Amino acid sequence: MPPSVPPGEQLIVRGAWVLTMGPDGAIENGAVHIEGGGITSVGPYRVLRRQHPDVAVVGDEHSIVLPGLINAHTHLSEALVPGMGSELSLYEWGERLVTPVSRNLTAEMAREGTILKAAEMIRSGITFVNDMFVHSNPGTRASLGVVEGLAEVGLRGAVSFGAEDALGDTSSTPPMAVEEVLEEHHDLAAAAQESGLGFRYGIGTLLGQSEELLEAGAAACRENGWGVHTHLSEVREEVVHSSLRWGRRPVSQAAHLGFLDVPLLAAHAIWVTQEDIDILAGARAGIAHNPVANMILGSGVCPLARLQAAGLEVGIGTDGAASNDSQNMLEAVKMAALLQKVHELDPAVISAKTVLQMATIGGARLLGVDGQVGSLEAGKRADVVLLRGTVELAAVHDPYQQVVYCAGPASVSDVWVEGRRVLAGRFLTTIDEAAQIARGRSLARAVVREAGLAGVHSFL
Hints:
By secondary structure, the protein is of the alpha/beta class. 38% of the residues lie in helices and 19% in strands. The relative contact order is 0.18.
């Protein structure tokens, strides 16, 4: 069973290094004081210890302390189908795996899958997840299960419903009616607000929606002040089909529809021209870079240098469990750096510190929560990660490089969300992990069977 941990501990979290990812930079032999769910002070350990002599200390002179990582883009709708489509291109993957699964997802599957994958996220230092739940199962309101799951685990996040109603020949099931799609968006927004989560209007892809739903969605965003979470220019085929359907590339079509008139977060942005980048920058849009999924699906390489040079905020996402196929944020951070280096044939093209900024304060700015999380600063919420006690941390020379290139989930010892320790000494505190794994296995078998994929070990 999970260990018993007070919901809002008063603690000093110390380390050989505190990587604040804020104005104070890296503090050697530093510490963070947590109280009442917030950060009260950050500074040298000796100073904080003198100020709070009776407060318990977690960590030691060999640990590394950093802000909770921000997973800028994933699909918890894929929680139960990892490891099935790694030899498929994006369009094949969508037609042969994701679409049949999405027709059979339920709110129970959403809830239990979310808890399962949230546990995996926490183990790699994630404290905030931006999810898009993609389903096409009428009458289920399946996306609302994500809210229940995140609340159960105690993970911070933002949610969206990635609806698509124009799947063409990829589905024999009639699409959800536009009215039902909009009702689910409203219900999800209300549930998110009640649970203290963020909400964005989800668009699976522009090409996956009818003209009626696109226009209705744009109007709903204007009326309700909703931001948008979508995919843009992920693969070349998307650009081609957009040009054939509308005479515009995906970015220009999003602008034409009015989705750039509200805060927009676009996943991928791989096949973008300089004109596309300028349009996105002019709208102050944000980009979620998903290097592992982009490599698995053979989609291409995100032009990070050009995006950042234009002033675009770029965060890092794991992407979904059917296209990554894990929720290991530390792996995604490392791959974000390595992919740029090998693509540009330049080891100096991006630094470890820059990549870690993308995964922390950059992701927080991308999602509009940088006033609360993303860096370790007094007054912010206590979303904190402690790395300690493993061979990966035996010799720490440059702490930024140590985190980006050396650390893995085994190094993540303790994680706090809003001052609540959800991982304590590598044990999850809010759920029974073994029981959750058992529930996940049962539901995974069920959804694969119902999607007609039982017994499929390879799509080749």
